[in-house]
Write a structure and sequence with these properties.
It is built from four helices and no strands. It is mainly alpha-helical. Helix 1 packs across helix 4. The radius of gyration is 12 Å and the shape is globular.
């Protein structure tokens, strides 16, 4: 597992207040939105703001967003490919 994925696990747990999940329990290949974690559209907005602020990556297309937010792995891949850093 890479540093970005681990960092994203910790950030999502923090910003979404997922108090009953640890980074070790966070399955990066599980369905992110609408899955076991209970992430909904309001949570997605918080994630979008965090991704833009922390990584300089803008997600402003619904079709792209559906793919990007399917799993934590897909989110990490999108950030890697589109980050200006």
């Amino acid at each position: 597992m890479d540093n970005l994925t681990e960092e994203l696990k910790k950030r999502l747990i923090e910003i979404l207040n997922l108090t009953d999940v640890t980074p070790e329990e966070f399955d990066e290949n599980a369905q992110l939105v609408g899955g076991e974690l209970g992430i909904d559209s309001i949570d997605v907005l918080e994630i979008v703001v965090m991704v833009e602020k922390d990584y300089g990556v803008i997600i402003n297309n619904k079709e792209i967003a559906e793919k990007v937010f399917s799993t934590l792995s897909s989110l990490a891949d999108y950030i890697r490919k589109n980050s200006p850093k």
